[in-house]
Amino acid sequence: MLTSTHRLIAVSLILLCISSPLIAQQRRGVPPRRPAPAEIPEPPATYDTLLAADSYKVYCEIRAVGGLIRSSAVNDLIDPVMKLGGPPKEFKTLVKWLNAHAEVLAGSRMLVAGWPSRPKLPAILVAIEFSSPEEAKKFYPELSGFLPTLLPTPTPTPSPTPVTVPKSTSVVGPGDSRMTAADPKLVTPKPVSAKDPGQEETFAEKESAGLPPYHMKQSGALVLISNTDFTFRDLRPRGAKLLEEDPNFTLARNRFSSESIFLYVDVKSIEKEEKDRQKKWEEEEKKRVEAEAATPPKAEESPETEINASSVEEQLPPPPPEPDQSPSSQPILVAATAEPQAANDATLSSAPQRNTDAVGPMMFSLYGALFGGQAKWPEAVSAALAFEGDTYVLRTLIVNGDENKSNPIPFVPQFVSGPALVPESPNIFPADMDLFVSVSLDYPQVYDGMLKAIANAEQQSRKFSRQTVKDSPPPESPFAAYEKKLGLKIKDDVLPLLGNELALVLPRKAKKASNEAARNPGNEGPTAGTNQADTNIAGPNPVIAISVKDREAVGRLIPKIIEGFGLKGANLLAQTEKREGTEITSYANLFAYAFVGDFLVVSPDAAATRHVVDAYINHQTLSSDSHFRNFTRWQPRQVLGQVYVAPGLVEQYTAAGNSSPVNEKMSEFLTRVNPVIDPLTYALSNDGLGPLHELHVPKNLLQLFIAGISSEAGKAPPETNEAMARSALQSVAVVEASFQADKGKGRYATLDELLSEGLISKEFMERYGYTIELRVSGNRFEATAVPNEYGKTGRLSFFIDESGVLRAGDHGGGAATAADQPMQ
Question: pLDDT at position 524, please?
Answer without folding.
Answer: 41
